[in-house]
């Protein structure tokens, strides 16, 4: 049976194989697997960074991943609200809207 493709493989496939390999093997295979921080903490840090840098495309992957890794909806709401004062209101409003859509979509299923 064939292995399921990673998100990077689905997104970039053969278009950028080296970037896919680095994403899968180094970023998620080594950095995210390091024992220095929990998956939960890594998710919270990653979401905070993506909100601050206004990386909405990446949030679409990392907000659900944070929920899977044990960060609660309320913790994400609090973090995004806090970030609004340091990284800008538009960044926070965009992120909170994405989170709301993700949570409401999960609740509907």
From TrEMBL:
Coiled coil: none annotated. Residues 17-99 form the Carboxymuconolactone decarboxylase-like domain. Signal peptide: none annotated. InterPro entries: 4CMD/NDH-1_regulator, AhpD-like, CMD-like. Transmembrane segments: none annotated. SUPFAM superfamilies: AhpD-like. PANTHER family: 4-CARBOXYMUCONOLACTONE DECARBOXYLASE FAMILY PROTEIN, BLL4600 PROTEIN. This is Carboxymuconolactone decarboxylase family protein. It comes from Streptomyces justiciae.
